[in-house]
Specification:
heterodimer, A: 162 residues, alpha+beta, 16% helix, disordered C terminus, B: 166 residues, mainly alpha, 7 helices
Chain lengths: 162, 166
């Protein structure tokens, strides 16, 4: 179910969305997070967790440190076949992911590039959105610190949205 | 005089007098006893009245604790949960949203908060799994359900139902 006034709420929390192209494309759901979304997985919340070995709650790639550091998150993305790339330019045949990191709050976010050059994101437990790269920068997700890409997955549900 | 004292009439008179004195003394004792009993009874009634009053006050206090306690827990949980939902909804890292101060305070509320967590879980499917695990010590989830929020939520709600908590 979509949150009441989800678009306005997201603009309030991410003020740059208000002055850039932006659209809500799904209802809110806690079923998957931004990492799962860029991997085309809408059934998993992929995250390190404290005590995760004991709790067994969330999947996390084998061998990647279970910590909330930008290095651990990028290693996790690399474990799915992504490699670093130079910039946000469109590369036909490749899925490109932008990495947002807020050094102060230690918040991570990933967005997947669409064929149009816009980006698609799963905003935490809230909605999927299409947006410009700068739309999510700010107090919550910090700034874009880099890009990774991999050969486009066949039947990638995120890419198919546009 | 001696003859008079020893006469049958005098003996009878003395006997009658003696019996009269005995009855008078006995009556006095009975009256004293009755008076004492009445005082004791009065004191006992006063004590009973005080005890009943104290009992009623205690009953009201217990009732107030019984009814007001959960309301306070519910109110505190609702406030903390709303704060947590609002301030962590954009987060992707389970480490981040399970270390949020409101989440940690909810864990600190202990087993009494479990019914309210399960209620919120049923409504929002939010990530209360770490809190539930740490509060209860239970792990009602299957390894194959790892990362599947719907199945994790269903498993915990079923666990709560079995215990009358959800």
């Amino acid at each position: 179910m979509r949150r009441p006034a989800a678009e306005d709420d997201l603009k309030r929390r991410f003020p740059r969305l208000a002055s850039t192209r932006f659209a809500v494309t799904s209802d809110d759901t806690p079923a998957y997070n931004c990492l799962a979304w860029v991997l085309g997985d809408q059934a998993s919340w992929i995250s390190p967790t404290l005590f995760d070995e004991d709790l067994g709650l969330y999947p996390w790639p084998e061998g990647v440190p279970r910590e909330n550091t930008v290095n651990a998150w990028i290693l996790a993305l690399e474990s799915y076949g992504f490699t670093h790339c130079e910039d946000a330019s469109l590369e036909p045949g490749r899925d490109k992911v932008a990495v947002y990191w807020n050094e102060t709050t230690q918040e991570i976010h990933f967005a997947l590039q669409l064929a149009s050059g816009l980006w698609t994101s799963k905003v935490g437990r809230w909605e999927d959105i299409n947006h410009e790269l700068d739309g999510l920068t700010g107090d919550r997700y910090g700034k874009v610190i880099g890009f990774l890409s991999r050969p486009a997955a066949t039947g990638n549900e995120t890419s198919a949205k546009e | 005089m001696r003859d008079f004292v020893q006469s049958e009439g005098a003996q009878q008179a003395l006997k009658a007098l003696s019996e009269q004195i005995t009855r008078a003394v006995s009556d006095t004792y009975v009256r004293w006893d009755n008076s004492l009993l009445r005082r004791k009874l009065h004191e006992a009634e006063q004590e009973r009245s005080l005890l009943e009053q104290e009992n009623e006050e205690l009953r009201r206090a217990l009732e107030a604790i019984r009814t007001a306690g959960p309301k306070d827990i519910r109110a505190e949980f609702s406030q903390l949960a709303a704060q947590w939902h609002d301030e962590t909804g954009h987060m992707s890292s389970a480490i981040s949203f399970t270390q949020h101060p409101a989440y940690l305070r909810i864990i600190g509320m202990g087993p009494a908060v479990v019914p309210f967590i399960l209620e919120d879980l049923r409504r929002t499917q939010a990530h209360w799994f770490v809190a539930l695990r740490l509060i209860t010590g239970e792990t009602p989830i299957r390894p194959e359900d790892r990362g599947n929020v719907q199945r994790l939520a269903d498993a915990w709600i079923a666990w709560g139902r079995e215990r009358g908590l959800a």
